[in-house]
Amino acid sequence: MIALVVSMATLFAWALVAGRLVRWSITAPVAMTAAGVVLTVGPHPLVTVSLTTSDAERAVEIILAVLLFTDATAAPKGVVRAHRRLLARLLLVALPLTVLAGVLVGGLLFPSGRWWLVALFAVVTVAVDLAPAAELIKDSRLPSWLRGVLTVETGLNDGILAPVFLFFLAGAEAYGDSGTPSGEPLGRALDAVFWAVVAGVLVGRPGGLLLRRAWRAGWTRPSAVRLGILALPLAAYGLGILLDGSGFIAAFVAGLCFAPEARALPAHALDLVEDVGALLSLALWFVFGELVTQAFTGDFDGRVVAYAALSLTVVRVLPVLLALLGSGLRRADRLLLAWLGPRGMATIVYGLLAFNGLAPVDPHAADLVGQLMTMTVLMSLVLHGLTYGPVAARYARYAGRPDGSDPDGAG
């Protein structure tokens, strides 16, 4: 309980001076992570949080479920339609190439021949989240179309990677540290994805239709609609678990099915679920601060630093630049899209789930994936969090259109 009090007090203190702190790139995730480090460091920390219990794992999954539902529904209106070709390049070409690049880098740095585990490293560390540079989306020095594309890409890639993560984790569990294959986890993963899709469709599509019709018929109010929307990711998660599927994948599918109906609902209908998701994620950023203190105790593998640095740069930048060849975008736009690959909440959650899944069968691999996750996100907080301001200023000068116009109609 003390962890709850301290983390919320930290959030409240940040909220009081957020406008001033943002000048130094101290965003809410940075503040919460710093508080988590300070309050959990040392032999007798003020706060301790256990993340290895089944209840903690379930709580982490629920947070991911709400975030994935929000990501699936929060695409700016018209962005997907206007820039569908550009988004296809980023999500269907650049994203698979990024995972492949992560696998190759992992194979070079950790040459054990255990490709399932190396693939798991890649998928945990390539999920993009704008939280470390969230203020960039509000920066008018960037054109609105580019900010919209970044919002959609970072929102959807986490959900696209969710079934891939589940499959790679199952493969790593199946082979364990002995190298002896077992097909049971892989079969369970495929079943989990199937039933998750079923649960998501059953909740998202009817839920959206009923809310839209109730609103148009005048049977409900905006506040009730917001509560109804918040219920959908939780219901999808629960149904997914009851069907022996993945709850967070079910929530993402529910969000995709619900999104078309959301446009007919009252203004700000999604605000509540977005705010709840933001609050839950900030609490997890506080917990991440404790993970930072734990990552540097015991046996720390120095290759983790190299992997994280390459993951944030080469692994992200080169695939995106390749995918954007022939897109018609100017060089400044291509470089900005390639550089802006922050790692945040999805990497933390996938890393925690991978740690808990691997710990019983391969403790060394579990520790390694935990270190990789922690180092990648920590370096991203510094690298992307501290550079988004100068990057936006340089982009505006180079592109020569600080007013945010879109003369090329890219996409």
Secondary structure topology:
Elements: H1 2-16, H2 18-21, H3 28-40, H4 54-73, H5 79-82, H6 84-109, H7 115-126, H8 144-175, H9 184-216, H10 222-242, H11 247-262, H12 271-295, H13 303-312, H14 314-323, H15 331-339, H16 345-358, H17 363-383, H18 388-399
How would you portray this structure in words?
It comes from Kitasatospora cinereorecta. It is found in: Cell membrane. α3 (28-40) packs parallel to α12 (271-295). The protein has 18 helices and no strands. The chain has 411 residues and is mainly alpha-helical.
Flag low-confidence runs.
Answer: 402-411
**What pattern of helices and strands is seen along the backbone?**
HHHHHHHHHHHHHHHHHH
How is the biggest beta sheet arranged? none
Quick check: average pLDDT?
A: 84
Number of DSSP-assigned strands: 0
Name the beta content range: under 5%
Structural class: mainly alpha
Helix content: over 70%
What Rg is obtained from the alpha carbons, in whole angstroms?
21 Å
Q: For the terminal residues, how far apart are their CA atoms? A: 49 Å
Can you give keywords for this protein?
single chain, 411 residues, mainly alpha, 72% helix, disordered C terminus
A few lines on this structure:
It is found in: Cell membrane. The chain has 411 residues and is an all-alpha fold.
